[in-house]
Design goal:
- The protein is of the alpha+beta class and about 120 residues long.
- It is built from three helices and four strands; from the N terminus they run H-H-E-E-H-E-E.
- It has helices at about 1-5, 15-30, 75-90, and strands at about 50-55, 60-65, 95-100, 110-115.
- A four-stranded antiparallel sheet has the order 1-2-4-3, with helices on one face.
- The protein is elongated, with a radius of gyration of 22 Å.
- The mean pLDDT is about 80.
């Protein structure tokens, strides 16, 4: 076991090839969700269209899912997300910051919306 950790095998040996296969298998077989280190306000959970969280500074952040296509304009989808949040909360809110959230394929799936002075 010590030889495996210290990598003391010659290139081209069976042991060296075995270690390389183990490393490559770990890289390509491990699911991406295991290494998902996004902040909580950037996580899009199935079944939740609007989710209230907070960022590292304690500010209120709502994560709002949007239904988009590849050709959707970001200004329109951002307005749709703010309107969906207003409709869900049943009161007008002031959004101070927005952050788009993309899936692993690069498709826009949600927005994180920082809301000023919301305490419900």
């Amino acid at each position: 076991m010590k030889k495996f950790f210290l990598w003391s095998f010659e290139r081209g040996s069976i042991q060296y090839d075995f270690i390389c296969v183990v490393i490559l298998a770990f890289i390509f077989v491990t699911p991406a969700r295991i290494f998902d280190d996004r902040p909580d306000f950037m996580r899009v959970l199935p079944g939740e269209n609007v989710r209230k969280t907070s960022d590292g500074n304690g500010n209120t952040v709502f994560t709002v899912k949007v239904d988009t296509t590849e050709f959707s304009a970001t200004e329109i989808t951002e307005k749709v997300a703010v309107d969906r949040l207003n409709k869900t909360l049943n009161e007008p809110i002031k959004v101070s910051r927005t952050l788009p959230i993309y899936d692993t394929m690069g498709l826009l799936v949600a927005y994180s919306l920082w809301v000023e002075e919301y305490e419900k």
